[in-house]
Amino acid sequence: MPELPEVETVRRELAAALLGRAFTAVERVEPFMLRDTTAEQLFALLPEAEVQSISRQGKFLVLGLSGGLFLTIHLGMTGQLLVLPLAAELPRHARYSLRFAGEGEPERRLVFADMRKFGRVHLTEGGPAARLEAMGPDALEGAWGPKQLAKSLAGRRAPLKAFLLDQRHLAGIGNIYADEILFQAGLSPLRPAGELRPAEVRRLAVAIREKLEEGVRLRGCSISDYVDTKGRRGSFQDSLQAYGRHGEPCPRCGRPLVRTLVAGRGTAYCAHCQR
DNA sequence: CCCAAGTCCTGGTTGC
DNA sequence: TGCAACCAGGACTTGG
User: What average pLDDT score do residues A209-215 get?
Assistant: First the structure.
């Protein structure tokens, strides 16, 4: 699943491939993907727009284009953003394809492939998609610390894991990294979020940054469909300690990890080490 | 048939 | 009592 580290890996590659280059044509687009825009607008506005910046907030990518345009992209659950030469065939589940080129360069394609239909793209003028405004600070690069974390945790009765998955508090954590962060911090996913003691909040803050940094360093988690813009897998899946490992021994105490459901999501944790 | 899980939406509950 | 904030759960999607 593309979460913060996967999207950050894609962002870095897109920066190398796209910055300073311009879109030349909209080759294909499935209308169901579009938000805040229509296919007609996409066809009319995108060609000749130059890519001036590529940023990320949580799991959203934002391409700043010339003419005050912004392309906001979400990979959904199984979305892949691929940079391909024109000679390559379009992948099976290509949902949209944008041609681009730099001065005197051959055209290439930016292809969004998505087996399912959770991915979205917005073309807006003047700023990124409006829904980003409701999002909390980026969980890795945002300006937050234990103090702010304690503040947003305060009074909440929802399970801790549900809090981590809620993008309005911190942006970028999904199901895989939530399980890994909670294991690292030694905190139960079921703990009411508002009941953490100060020392536990500090442990949580450290674990969030450490696990996301590790994910970026390992170029993401390819446990299912995730690949980078060149189709390469990440390797964080080889370092998983909790996610998907229910029934296997806890890496810390050896007792079997258990599985439960939190916020409708499968959750693996150690009932002994995580309190 | 159930499971996987991103975000959005709805409707019910809580507490000031 | 009224109201906003909060929270749980369903919808959507397709392949294993």
Answer: 96
